[in-house]
Design a protein that fits this description.
223 residues, alpha/beta, six-stranded mixed β-sheet, globular
Length: 223
């Protein structure tokens, strides 16, 4: 979807209804919790979610898990700088580990503190597992540890995300510009999509890829 098409899409009543419904959900959710944060990866979905949540709580903590390779994988520094210029309450949690990021480590690091809830930008469309989880638990779900997981973007489609991003001039990563908004982005090398992640980086930015090889020589085993 190009910019012109995205702006036309944003005029659809169905899209406008979805945005308003999501805003109402966010506002209602914030009224039910006391100490929330936004778990933000600065990917397309969490960026849209962040923009929506900030309209109701501009001071909400925005927590981002970074690693030593984050700024090699994509232009995170540039994108985050644009958000900082908007005055977000940014909190970066640095995690040093091996080449492949550990999912539970990320979740545990982000949730450290006296939080009772967090917003996350997951969508049912992304995977079968997320679709089942959202249908089973809903968008406002208390986890086993007592923290409430809030998923405002649950039923958004990719075109909705693109339209909102373009309409509101939201900063987005270079990978989307080169490979399209259907591309997966991550602030660390993921176990599940390691080949795709590394091959994409090699094609997009060979200099950053070579620096990543210097940091983790085992990268060569996957590309």
């Amino acid at each position: 979807m190009d910019e012109k098409t995205a702006l036309l899409y944003s005029r659809l009543n169905s899209y406008k209804y979805l945005v308003e419904k999501t805003k109402n959900f966010i506002e209602n959710s914030l009224q039910q919790v006391k100490n929330p944060y936004v778990a933000c990866s600065f990917g397309k979905d969490s960026a849209v979610m962040l923009h929506l949540v900030l309209q109701f709580n501009p001071a909400i903590p925005v927590r981002f898990a970074s690693r030593q390779e984050t700024n090699l994988i994509d232009n995170y520094e540039e994108v985050i700088k644009k958000w900082l210029e908007k005055g977000i309450n940014y909190q970066e949690i640095f995690m040093e580990s091996g080449l492949v990021k550990i999912k539970n480590q990320l979740k545990n690091s982000l949730s450290q503190g006296k939080w009772d809830s967090f917003f996350v930008g997951i969508r049912a469309e992304e995977s079968f597992g997320r679709r089942v989880s959202l249908k089973t638990h809903g968008q406002f779900h208390k986890l086993e540890n007592g923290i409430i997981k809030i998923s405002p973007m649950a039923w958004w489609k990719l075109n909705d995300v693109i339209a909102y991003t373009i309409e509101n001039n939201i900063p987005f990563l270079n990978k989307y510009k080169i490979e399209g908004f259907s591309a997966r982005t991550t602030s660390g090398v993921p176990r599940k999509y390691i080949h795709e992640c590394l091959a994409s980086l090699k094609d997009r930015d060979i200099n950053s890829f070579n620096k990543l090889v210097e940091m983790f020589p085992e990268v060569k085993e996957f590309v």
